[in-house]
Design goal:
The complex is a heterodimer of chains A (about 60) and B (about 450).
Chain A (H helix, E strand, L loop, with lengths): L1 H21 L3 H26 L2 H5 L1
Chain B lengths: L10 H27 L5 H27 L6 E6 L2 E7 L14 H22 L6 H24 L7 H5 L11 H19 L20 H26 L7 H27 L4 H16 L7 H25 L8 H19 L4 H4 L9 H30 L6 H6 L1 H6 L18
Antiparallel strand pairs in B: 1-2
Helix pairs in contact in B: 1-2, 1-3, 1-7, 2-3, 2-4, 3-4, 3-6, 3-7, 4-6, 4-13, 6-11, 6-13, 7-8, 7-9, 8-9, 8-10, 9-10, 9-11, 10-11, 11-13
The chains are: A mainly alpha (about 60), B mainly alpha (about 450).
Chain lengths: ~60, ~450
């Protein structure tokens, strides 16, 4: 899960970069940038979860 | 020759040099703050670590960091993608050999050395009481020599983040005047990576996974550290505005006002939140709120009206205690100094707030873009780069280092305290601090 989380963090950044390169209209570009941040946030959550001991996760 | 290449120091460069002179106080303030927030058995170790970090970061930055970060107007290595040049790394020789050190360039480099040192100091607070001194030095070299300069080039060295305005019409590109992203958020994310790698202190969590309170040992150090950091932060923000963004010197007063207002508002708000939450204002958390206000105001300090600085501080003051409590209780992040919440969370908020509140003087920013439309998107792209590049790189480098040089101390050392274990002497030899030294009545 840790590796997947870090991969999602990287994927979020690549989505943001792809939005800059591929989309020139401001609204879709901004939307895709936000989606990229969202993917990164999911990755961050997964890395947090991977580092949280099982006892904390059960509480 | 760029605008820093004059043989004699201009008035602005002299003022910037005076501001850079104040920057070591930010390091001193953070070092004392971190020490006060730890237990007394680790106090000397933390101060010693801070000194080592400042030294190692300076040497690592001069060895290779500057060659990767470069100067604000310098050239860089380019990758051409879809018709756009992406400047991802500076092109300077090692050991500052390409810099004109007899000109105002030296002031910029001096500022950048101190900025790298400050960034590298942040993880020591989060990983306090269980991080070996040798490993601290090695990890600092990686942060100041590799991770920090790469991102600093993107934002401050004319890199692709700074060029978002010209290349993609996103405002004036990623703007970070005082280092809220480059120094603070990068340092806070490196701190998070270290805490993940080291794990919590022994005894921090019960067998049921509940966090136990390990109080700060010296509240006076904590508050005094805040006051020292305040002065250093004003210097750092002024230096960034003058040296990295070419803002006019008439903004120095505004920078001081905004920095002070944001810190004050954040501390006040944290005191109110902790008063409502715990029944009394918490000194340690209020101190963290103060520093979070300094951090949050850094990115936009020269570009916002005072009312916006107060608002930025108030939000930082709410975010800080909430982040500290949730990281500790829900995510098992043992961060004795609250560095992740203060520097990473506060820094990210400051970067986003820059996109919301900053007003850009045309004279200084016209070369960076055509207008402030899309500025908030540029700031979000910067946050994405911090999360998607700085955090994985800091984690990966430190995880590799951990394989070669175990970073966590032995359990016995943690119980004994790192002062005695690693330095052979305590910070307060005249003051018996163990409960078994006092006979029970």
């Amino acid at each position: 899960m840790k590796l997947a989380g870090f991969l999602l963090l990287l994927s979020g950044l690549f989505l943001v970069l792809a939005a800059l390169v591929l989309l020139r209209q401001p609204s879709p570009q901004a939307l895709f940038v936000l989606l990229g941040i969202g993917v990164g946030a999911i990755g961050l959550g997964m890395v947090f979860r991977a580092h949280t001991p099982a006892k904390e996760r059960r509480r | 020759m760029n605008r820093f290449g004059d043989a004699t120091l201009s008035e602005a460069a002299l003022m910037a040099a005076a501001a850079v002179l104040l920057m070591p106080l930010a390091l001193a303030g953070l070092a004392i703050l971190n020490t006060g927030l730890a237990r007394s058995r680790n106090a000397a170790h933390l101060m010693m670590a801070s000194l080592c970090i400042a030294g190692v970061a300076a040497v690592a930055y001069v060895f290779c960091g500057f060659s990767w970060q470069g100067l604000p107007d310098g050239t860089g290595r380019l990758i051409r993608v879809a018709g756009t040049d992406w400047n991802w790394m500076a092109r300077q020789p090692l050991f500052l050999r390409g810099a004109d050190l007899a000109s105002a360039q030296s002031v910029v480099i001096w500022m950048q050395i101190l900025a790298a040192s400050l960034c590298a100091l942040i993880p020591s607070g989060a990983a306090a009481e269980r991080w070996r001194l040798g490993a601290i030095c090695a990890s600092t070299a990686l942060l100041a020599g590799i991770t920090y300069p790469l991102f600093a080039h993107w934002a401050w060295g004319g890199g692709w983040l700074a060029q978002l305005g010209n290349n993609f019409h996103l405002g004036y590109g990623f703007v970070d005047v005082g280092g809220g992203g480059v120094i603070q958020t990068a340092g806070g994310l490196a701190a998070l990576a270290m805490v993940w790698i080291l794990g919590p202190r022994r005894g921090k969590y019960t067998s049921d996974g509940l966090p136990t309170a390990i109080p700060a040992h010296h509240a006076v150090f904590v508050i005094f550290g805040c006051l020292l950091a305040w002065v250093g932060w004003i210097g750092m923000n002024i230096a960034g505005a003058l040296l990295l963004y070419g803002l006019e010197a008439s903004r120095i007063g505004l920078i001081g006002i905004n920095t002070t207002l944001a810190a004050g508002a954040a501390a006040l708000m944290t005191a109110i939140v902790t008063r409502l939450r715990f029944g009394r204002p918490d000194a340690s958390l209020t101190a963290n709120g103060w520093v979070a206000g300094l951090v949050a105001a850094s990115a936009a300090c020269a570009l916002i009206p005072p009312a916006a600085a107060i608002l930025i501080g108030l939000v930082a003051g709410v975010l800080t205690p909430i982040a500290i409590e949730n990281l500790e209780a829900r995510l098992a992040i043992d961060d004795p100094a609250g560095a992740i919440s203060v520097h990473a969370v506060g820094g990210i908020w400051g970067l986003i707030a820059t996109g919301m509140f900053a007003r850009f003087p045309a004279a200084s920013f016209q070369s960076r873009g055509a207008g402030d439309a899309g500025q908030w998107v540029a700031q979000i792209v910067g946050v994405a780069a911090l999360l998607g590049f700085v955090l994985p790189l800091a984690y990966g480098l430190n995880a590799l280092l951990n394989l070669v040089l175990p970073q966590r101390v032995a359990p016995e050392a943690e119980r004994q305290g790192l002062d005695l274990h690693e330095l052979g002497a305590g910070a307060y030899p005249d003051f018996p601090t163990h409960s078994d030294d006092f006979p029970q009545r």
